[in-house]
Write a structure and sequence with these properties.
- This protein is 62% helix and 3% strand.
- The protein contains 17 helices and 2 strands.
- Strands 1-2 form a two-stranded antiparallel ribbon.
- Helix 2 packs across helix 3, helix 3 packs antiparallel against helix 15 and helix 5 packs across helix 10.
- It starts with 17 loop residues before the first helix and ends with a helix.
- The model has no long low-confidence stretch (mean pLDDT 92).
- Bound molecules: iron/sulfur cluster (2 copies).
């Protein structure tokens, strides 16, 4: 191994960012709880058929409909139209994608409430076991591919299998309109199977840090891919690195930070734990990969993540796209019929939907032609 030229070690006395990150995560979790409480009162209004005090539906609840938001995003890319059923979901999705293009998978470690809970559960696990447990490689790699398989199936279904007309028909459907209400009942009237699955995931998250995020979250998989396009990466200056290995120990994603110059990993969440613990000044930093490699301070990451989220969602609010256009009367009507609403659950049903929508579209043309022929 090539020996390093001894350079004077200058201590890194830059303030850590983890307390700020915890504060941002807590604030965002509180916002989600607030949205949940408002949504609960809206559901009460529906349950009493409008007899109880009126509470308007909080649009932020759209953020908990990632599949509908993804479909809405794709619909926008294809048509330039922001679909009116869950427009807030579209803006939230857009802000998260932009965030990952600028600061990597930062949504996961700075804002995501599930990521936050996973972190707290992981901390609890480490307190019990006094160490960070990791699965052996032969299990870790195949399991990590699960989230990509799920994402791949979603992308294949929406982009390759569903026609543009069928996509629009799904977004317009009553099922999509009340998918948030259905989601509420999924948790409020949780089935025994779902409860067992959540309990198993909880226990697994105590044993293996971020079990859900690392192996199963398709949203995280998507952000992992987009984060690779980000020009800002964690970079190590090999010349001043003292090989203490503290960055490796601190990384919740088990990235071997001390053996690379630039972290090009779909698992890096820009949590900056490694940057905080590095004892040598200017040795481990978030920098652009552009030729001038300028440093991005920890504070810029914190402010940047919040700014992107607020700017994009705020744009939706001021341009009047934030609220959906479903009236309370429509909600009350759909609420009664909700249990009869379904959605395509496999490739066969998507193909069937494509055909049905195509038939419906050609029907008026056929009628016009028939009427025309009749006249002649
Ligand atoms: S490499 Fe650093 S910033 Fe990325 S996940 Fe690991 S500790 Fe966090
Ligand atoms: S924390 Fe990592 S980058 Fe910093 S000196 Fe130690 S091994 Fe090198």
């Amino acid at each position: 191994m090539k020996e390093k030229t001894k350079t004077k070690i200058i201590r890194n006395d830059e303030k850590g960012i983890q307390k700020t990150r915890f504060f941002v995560q807590s604030l965002f979790a509180a916002l989600c709880i607030w949205i949940g409480v408002e949504f609960f009162f809206f559901i009460q209004y529906l349950e009493t058929n409008g007899a109880s005090a009126f509470y308007s539906r909080p649009p932020g609840v759209d953020g908990f409909l990632p599949i509908s938001s993804f479909m809405s995003f794709y619909h926008f890319l294809m048509t330039g139209e922001i679909h009116s059923a869950h427009p807030a979901g579209f803006f939230i999705f857009l802000s998260i994608i932009l965030m990952s293009l600028v600061f990597g998978k930062s949504f996961c470690s700075w804002l995501c409430p599930i990521g936050f809970i996973s972190e707290l559960v992981g901390d609890f696990g480490e307190k019990i076991f006094k160490r960070r447990l990791k699965l052996p490689k032969f299990l870790d790699y195949p399991l990590r591919s699960l989230k990509y398989l799920m994402l791949g199936f979603l992308i294949y279904s929406v982009i390759f299998l569903m026609s543009g007309l069928a996509l629009k028909a799904f977004l317009d459907s009553p099922y999509n309109m009340v998918s948030d209400v259905k989601m509420y009942y999924f948790f409020a009237d949780i089935s025994q199977t779902a409860l067992i699955i959540i309990a198993v995931l909880f226990v697994l998250s105590i044993l293996i840090r971020n079990f859900w995020c690392r192996f199963l979250c398709p949203y995280g998989a998507l952000l992992g891919i987009t984060s690779l396009l980000s020009p800002n990466k964690i970079q190590r200056v090999a010349k001043s690195c003292i090989d203490c290995g503290l960055c490796n120990k601190a990384c919740p994603s088990f990235i071997k930070v001390d053996s690379v110059k630039t972290v090009w990993s779909d698992e890096c969440t820009s949590c900056l734990n490694c940057v905080d613990v590095c004892p040598v000044k200017d040795t481990l930093e978030l920098k652009t990969i552009l030729p001038n490699k300028f440093k991005i301070s920890k504070r810029v990451v914190a402010i940047g993540v919040i700014t992107i989220f607020m700017a994009v969602t705020g744009f939706g609010m001021v341009t009047g796209y934030w609220q959906n256009d479903i009236s309370n009367t429509e909600y009350l009507m759909h609420y009664k019929l909700m249990n009869s609403y379904g959605h395509p659950t496999g490739t066969k049903e998507i193909k069937k939907l494509n055909e049905e929508v195509k038939k419906e579209q050609t029907l008026p043309e056929t009628l016009i032609n028939e009427a025309h022929n009749g006249k002649n």
